[in-house]
Amino acid sequence: MEVYKPGIADLLMKASQAGVTNVRVAQANAPEVLEHMLEPGSVHELWVFFPDPWHKTRHHKRRLVSPRFAGLAARVLEQGGLWRLATDWQEYAVVMREVLDGASDDFENVNPGPAATDENPEQGWAPRWDGRILTSFERKATEAGRIPRDLTYRRR
Ligand SMILES: C[S@@+](CC[C@H](N)C(=O)[O-])C[C@H]1O[C@@H](n2cnc3c(N)ncnc32)[C@H](O)[C@@H]1O
């Protein structure tokens, strides 16, 4: 799911060059896809990697990962299905964790543990998932000194 037309063009070109045929792309707003285009319990895994962080406090309401989006994710994920997330912004990672922990009727943290603190920011995250390919967003973030955080939650 992608709203940005050049991003879709790039994806389709790369898929074509790689000979990939089992891909379906929707030029659509992700929450609307989850709400209207996907059947309940029809998704095996949902991946939200490096969503736009919207740094400014007044823009936080634009962030993709929110209690409402968690409800839509719960709707489409099958029981036992995984929601994988990653972000290179520590503050957003903490928010993601709070949102998902707050939806504990629907989701359990696959990597529970003590929440990260300012003193111990490394603890409480999922290990980097091998299936998550390195994109330019992650590479630039790492070069800028930011540490990508992974989270994995299971649909109850
Ligand atoms: C920071 S990029 C990360 C892209 C990719 N996931 C990665 O890891 O390299 C965020 C992408 O999400 C897209 N996006 C933002 N809001 C969206 C929404 N509501 N629905 C679908 N795509 C969205 C943006 O156009 C942008 O391409």
Give short descriptive properties of this protein.
single chain, about 160 residues, alpha+beta, Rossmann fold, 4-stranded mixed β-sheet, binds S-adenosylmethionine
Q: Any overview of this molecule?
A:
With 156 residues, this protein is of the alpha+beta class. It folds into two domains: 1-27, no CATH class; 38-155, Vaccinia Virus protein VP39 (Rossmann fold, 3-Layer(aba) Sandwich). It contains five helices and four strands, in the order H-H-E-H-E-H-E-H-E. The chain has helices spanning 5-18, 30-37, 67-76, 90-101, 136-143, and strands at 43-49, 77-87, 107-109, 149-155. The protein has a four-stranded mixed beta sheet. Helix 3 links the parallel strand 1 and strand 2 (77-87). The chain starts with a helix and ends with a strand. The model has no long low-confidence stretch (mean pLDDT 94). Bound molecules: S-adenosylmethionine. Residues 1-4, 7, 29-30, 49-52, 64, 135, 137 line the site of S-adenosylmethionine (SAM).
